[in-house]
Amino acid sequence: MTEIRKPDQKAMEEAAYRWNHIAKPLHGLGVLEEDIIKIAGMTGSPDVNLEKKAVVIMCADNGVVAEGVSQTGQEVTAAVTRNFTKGNASVCIMAERAGAEVVPVDVGVAGSLEDCGRVYPLRSRRIMAGTGNFAREEAMTEAEARAAIQVGMDEVKRLKEKDCRIIATGEMGIGNTTTSSAVAAVLLGKEAAEVTGRGAGLSDEALKRKIQVIERAIAFHRPDWKDPVDVLKKVGGLDIAGLAGVFLGGAVYGVPIVVDGFISAVAALTAERLCPGCVDYMLASHVSAEPAGEMVLNVLGLKPVIRAGMCLGEGTGAVAALPLFQMAADVYSRMSTFQENSLEEYQEFSHA
């Protein structure tokens, strides 16, 4: 993979200096201040501009749904994807308020997408009509996994060329908490039961079946934890691969990428394992209610700005964080300094 440029240390130092001289208590905005400093490093400039925003939603189906691991059928993926294009989905309504463009990407939807709207045009980049059922066969080939990763990287490049300054990540794919749990179990070296939750809502019996399906698939395919592409092709999903490409693209093109929930975080972990250092171009939005949500963020060393028990998906958590990043950027760029107000500055004290 491409070698990742280190964040601009000088830009980060200048941003930290700016925060410390603004007329407010030191570090008063907590993680938001840290994230603005990170953004300065990502973009290579202490002049932080987040005016143009987008949420990229990778849409794809998962063959493992045939094993009864989801409460709903595969047809829901296509239905919700069509709703994205019509602006009639939770993330669309939230993105409108946040001032973000919605970018739905068909990277592997099995159902028909003929009745799409024009509010948010669909990006047709379909690799295949959904993955194979990893309980019985590998999810995809290595070439298909790599092609999906490239789709994500291409979207970041395209949006960067349109002057997009920050990108939130989202996904839509019935069964993708199963694929994400499988990938997380392998990459984290955890038992399936430790990282698998109820997704959009499962009974105790269905949850037990979901865990068993993942356990058997990992034992059967023996994915190599040291090779993230091998993990993706054996037990992953096209949406996870596409999002991993978005995170890689953020690092390559110097664009801040916002992690959404569990599925997005697993894609972020996959990207970091593929190309160490791309985590420096990620921001965490919230902590998913899925069991491994916080676990993955901790491994990545990312601090979320929202704790609200969200687990809707679509990119809603990442989009909910965009106004917070914008507000922090506004304070950072517009607020006067202690010197300009003829006030004595706060002093930094170390604590034993």
TrEMBL record:
Entry-linked CDD domains: DMB-PRT_CobT (cd02439)
GO molecular function, one term: nicotinate-nucleotide-dimethylbenzimidazole phosphoribosyltransferase activity
Gene3D superfamilies from the UniProt entry: 1.10.1610.10, 3.40.50.10210
Cited SUPFAM superfamilies: Nicotinate mononucleotide:5,6-dimethylbenzimidazole phosphoribosyltransferase (CobT)
Parts of the chain that traverse the membrane: none
Entry keyword annotation includes Transferase: yes
Pathway it works in: Nucleoside biosynthesis; alpha-ribazole biosynthesis; alpha-ribazole from 5,6-dimethylbenzimidazole: step 1/2
Pfam families: DBI_PRT (PF02277)
Transport is among the record's keywords: no
Domain of life: Bacteria
Catalytic activity: 5,6-dimethylbenzimidazole + nicotinate beta-D-ribonucleotide = alpha-ribazole 5'-phosphate + nicotinate + H(+)
EC top class named in words: transferase
The enzyme's E.C. designation: 2.4.2.21
Keyword terms, alphabetized: Cobalamin biosynthesis, Glycosyltransferase, Transferase
Entry's Gene Ontology BP terms: cobalamin biosynthetic process
Active site: E314 (proton acceptor)
Family, similarity comment: Belongs to the CobT family.
Function: Catalyzes the synthesis of alpha-ribazole-5'-phosphate from nicotinate mononucleotide (NAMN) and 5,6-dimethylbenzimidazole (DMB).
UniProt-recorded name of the protein: Nicotinate-nucleotide--dimethylbenzimidazole phosphoribosyltransferase
Organism: Candidatus Lachnoclostridium stercorigallinarum
Gene name of the encoded protein: cobT
